[in-house]
Design brief:
Layout: H1 7-34, H2 40-52, H3 71-81, H4 87-90, H5 97-107, H6 110-122, E1 127-130, E2 148-152, E3 155-166, E4 173-179, E5 190-196, E6 202-207, E7 223-234, E8 238-239, H7 245-281, E9 283-284, E10 287-288, H8 293-320, H9 326-351, H10 353-356, H11 362-371, H12 379-390, H13 412-416
Parallel strand pairs: 1-4
Antiparallel strand pairs: 2-3, 3-7, 4-5, 5-8, 6-7, 9-10
Helix pairs in contact: 1-3, 3-7, 5-6, 5-7, 7-8, 7-9, 8-9, 9-11, 9-12
Length: about 425
């Protein structure tokens, strides 16, 4: 399909695709077949090869060691890395570091950028994003946030409890979302604060066991439970303006949702490639499975939906350059999550026992894609936003000539009621 991406976006994506096909996916296949894990040393080798091919950290400015692609131009590359379980990490475009890089680049101070952003881009350190809290704290309704940061002189004193802190167990610093003004609405009284993980009072309790939590990497970063007990950091560690945490988070999450959409589009594409290859070779009931009309039509349907998902993401990305684009992003996130789940479920079904075996990546894809309907905002939260927007401007004049009950015909008993 032709999406009329820019010449630069297309050229870089084609080189990322070649890197995936020539280097990353073959190593992934080998690791799956031999039940191996990818070591940190191998990841660093990928990074060196990515640098040699001018693919390293495509989302970051050249001054920090990246390729300097703007947001729209990097989306096709993110789709290509999504085709492999280890694709994103292989070019240093992996969450949560990618989103935290973007946050520090957008609103970090020059000192924060030098101390934290530069080594983060280069892979010398890692990071986590600490926003979600256990029940009854902030989750799908972030206004319920209970973690607090109180000023004591020139320091923040942070107390709270988080979980699903992506990358938390291995991180060198966390971006912590906390209430800082208790008299203001949470949207105006919440800040994001950079907290080094070796600070006294930071207790990374555990990695939360979860669906799809076992990757191919040695010591995968996971999603951590973290407790903060009288954690003291300088007020200058505030990321962005004080009280603007929700606005900063929205900038981070809006773009992050679209990059996730493209990664999962890439995962869906590869899942379908595997399914079509399998159907073409596997025979049953006297013919190739690829000749079965039902399977062909189901493949056609999901290919169509995947095309629409890619188109919607690109439109949302264009709007994000001009506005918050909350509805466009929400629509893309909900639709792409559903399509990716449908595509990968179909691929597993098409491959039968080979779909649920782990010689192929489909079983791992299946475990991972289910989380996409919850992470970065559950389907129901995004639908709520879309529905609220849909009902904002109801055209009452459309019902001008609808027949209504003649009130003069009401019985006296009903009138009295």
């Amino acid at each position: 399909m032709e999406y009329h991406d820019s010449e630069k976006a297309t050229e870089v994506a084609s080189r990322v695709e070649a890197f995936m096909d020539e280097v990353v996916i073959p190593r992934e296949r080998e690791a799956l077949a031999e039940d191996e894990v990818i070591s940190r040393a191998e990841i660093e080798e990928f990074w060196e090869m990515a640098r040699e091919r001018d693919l390293f950290a495509p989302q970051m400015p050249e001054e920090y060691g990246g390729q300097g692609l703007d947001f729209q131009d990097m989306l096709p590359s993110f789709e290509q890395v999504g085709r492999s379980i280890i694709g994103a990490i292989s070019i240093r475009a992996n969450a949560p570091d990618e989103g935290n890089m973007h946050t520090l680049e957008m609103v970090g101070t020059e000192a924060q950028k030098e101390e934290w952003l530069r080594p983060l881009v280069q892979g010398e350190i890692s990071s986590g994003f600490s926003m979600t809290e256990p029940m009854q704290g902030g989750g799908s309704d972030p206004k319920m946030l209970k973690t607090t940061a109180v000023k004591d002189g020139d320091e923040w004193v942070i107390n709270g409890h988080k979980w699903w802190t992506s990358g938390g167990k291995q991180s060198d610093f966390l971006l912590v979302m906390a209430r800082t003004d208790f008299d203001a609405h949470p949207y105006a009284g919440t800040s994001i604060i950079l907290v080094p993980t070796d600070t006294d009072g930071v207790n990374v309790v555990r990695n939360v066991p979860h669906l799809g939590g076992h990757g191919l990497r040695e010591n995968p970063p996971g999603h951590a439970e973290v407790k903060y007990e009288n954690v003291r950091v300088p007020v200058e560690n505030t990321v962005g303006e004080e009280g603007q945490g929700f606005q900063v988070a929205q900038m981070r999450l809006g773009g992050g949702r679209l990059t996730h959409c493209m990664r999962y589009s890439g995962m869906s594409e590869r899942a379908l490639d595997i399914a079509k290859a399998y159907l073409s070779e596997r025979e049953g009931f006297g013919e190739s499975l690829s000749d079965k009309q039902e399977l062909r039509h189901r493949i056609a349907d999901v290919e169509t939906k995947l095309h629409m998902a890619r188109t919607g993401v690109r439109h949302a990305a264009r709007e994000l350059d001009r506005s918050e684009a909350r509805i466009e992003v929400a629509m893309s996130k909900v639709f792409t999550a559903q399509v990716a789940n449908e595509a990968i479920d179909l691929a597993v079904q098409c491959c039968g026992a080979n779909g649920i075996a782990k010689d192929l990546p489909l079983a791992r894809f299946y475990e991972r894609v289910r989380t996409f309907r919850i992470v970065d905002g559950a389907d129901e939260v995004h639908r709520r936003s879309i529905a609220r927007d849909a009902f904002e401007d109801v055209r009452e004049e459309e019902l001008e000539h609808v027949l209504r009950f003649d009130e003069d015909r009401l019985a006296e008993e009903l009138i009295e009621d």
